[in-house]
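Obj.: predict assembly geometry.
Materials: sequence records (below).
Method: joint structure prediction, all chains together.
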Amino acid sequence: MKRVLVVDDSLSVARQLEKIINESGEFVSVGHAKNGAEAIKMNHSENPDIICMDMNMPGMDGLTALRSLVVLDKEVKVVMVTSLGGVGDKFTEALKLGAKNVISKPFEAENVLQILREL
Amino acid sequence: MAVKFFGQFLVEKGAVSREALLQAIELQEQKNLKMGEMALEMGYVTQADIERAHRAQLTKDLKLGDILVEMGILTLNQLNEVITRQKNTHLYIGEALVLINAFSKEQLQQHLDDFKADQAQYVSDRIELPAGVANSATWEMTADLTYKMITRVLDLQFRPGKCQQVTTLSSNFMMAAMDFSGDVEARYLVSVSAGLQKTIAKAILSEENVDTEPVEVLEDTVMEFVNVVCGNVAAKASQMGMIMNINPPVTIHPPQAGIPVPEGYIGLCFPIHVGDEEKMELILLIKG
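Observations (raw structure tokens):
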């Protein structure tokens, strides 16, 4: 099973995502980081295959963390999860920085799993 | 299930790859001239004029075209000609994808039809604001999108009340707030009673019972609802040509006497009727 790290300052979004991931039978959550800096640390300690990361977080935001993650770890696949996915330049910026896809909020379980399967 | 731009819609449904989209965006960036570049190409300005105008922009909050007119470098007619040519020659993302052979012209039309159908649920219904509110179309869209997300995300039956200008925000169990910056400055707030907070938590967490959830989780679900609405408002605003940035949401516990609208702001209250026992309001504090 592919290992997924969830990065979001919102407890409720992390709960939603971890539930979808753990109930899928295809993926397993390896934990929850609350900001970009924690994501970088947990990527090192947990070595996930996939990171689902919010864009808009206090402290180190998602795009800043993405810049570091793609340099530090060439293997990990990062998907941004954001309510700002519909803002064209935010979506484009995320892809240009190395995100594999963007999941827009509100999301549905099947949509999240479909994107994770295609990575 | 969210406000999207066309390229994102295509990648999400697997119609094009991320790599093809990036290639098409690169082509757009090469072909679509910025205002200054187009004015330069049309021979109306020199590179030195543009640099002078850029320097002036450091102290004036005006678009480049407006600055060039204000400085007497461009006439208003010339500015309009430049903007018209920019629009007429603009390469749209769908066209760029056809040019790089990501799909055919016929497939583009089918994708555009599918996109229109997907986004139809976010086309605004008319909402009336009090007279004299600046950027009224943006705030009408904000209220309208809030109502649509109450239905889609919270699955809640409600009746929107008439928008009123207020000088004090009335008290309630809690509020979640998010600040907009960019082309407009405003604070977006959703005020909810205790029962509604639980209703929102059940919907966001997909749980039937949230009685044992910690307070911070219950409050977080209301903040997350506000985050989802505001992100989609920013997306819709970008389609309308406006920049709206958002900051992480916060919670507020209003005192019994309510919260006065700060000086220099207009307070708009949109009551959301959900039953006699519960109280919900959308509030917008708009600067200027």
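Conclusions so far: Chain B is about 45% helix and 15% strand.
To do: check interface contacts against the pulldown list.
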